[in-house]
Design goal:
The chain has 149 residues and is α/β, with parallel strands linked by helices. It has helices at 12-21, 25-31, 60-70, 101-111, 113-145; strands at residues 3-4, 38-40, 47-49, 75-78, 84-87, 91-94. The protein has 2 domains: 3-108, no CATH class; 112-149. Helix 3 (60-70) links the parallel strand 3 and strand 4. The chain is 48% helix and 13% strand. The chain is elongated and about 70 Å long. The protein has 5 helices and 6 strands, in the order E-H-H-E-E-H-E-E-E-H-H.
Length: 149
């Protein structure tokens, strides 16, 4: 059975490959809120699992290990908690997946950060204006219900 430990590995080739798909710590924490013992990437079909965890149902781990041996490019045994993440329009993936989906999203966001910041500021202002308007309408309607019209 092949095990992957990207972070602590002494294998230079694996470390260099992971650097291409590794997201920043900030991105990782911004888009993941939990870890799990098994997760799949819908974009490439890879499945990651942590065989050192004891949370598997009976026979589940054995099945994943068997699949890992049969399909070594699709099933990966990892030495860490798996971080699943969902990107609207892309689907479910795994942080650091070999397909590079999460790195692609982070690179896109970073490359377009000025436009995204402008969009977020403008959108926040629009939402604030709508909230103010709704609040004012509520105050007016409350006055009508009280007979203060």
């Amino acid at each position: 059975m092949r095990r992957i430990d990207f972070i602590g590995t002494r294998n230079e080739e694996v470390r260099n490959f992971y650097k291409k798909t590794e997201t920043s710590t900030e991105f990782h924490y911004a888009f993941t809120n939990s870890g799990t013992i098994v997760a799949s990437c819908e974009l490439c079909g890879r499945t990651y699992f942590n065989s050192t965890d004891h949370g598997f149902e009976e026979g589940e781990l054995e099945g994943l290990v068997a699949k890992s041996n049969e399909f070594p490019d699709k099933y990966y045994d990892c030495d860490y908690s798996i971080a699943p993440v969902y990107f609207a329009g892309l689907g479910h993936t795994v942080m650091g997946c070999a397909c590079g989906a999460s790195k692609f999203v982070e690179d896109f966001i970073w490359a377009h950060r000025q436009n995204i910041a402008q969009y977020l500021n403008e959108r926040r202002q629009i939402e604030f204006t709508h909230a103010e308007s709704d609040f004012e309408k509520t105050k007016v309607n409350e006055g009508k219900e009280d007979g203060k019209d």
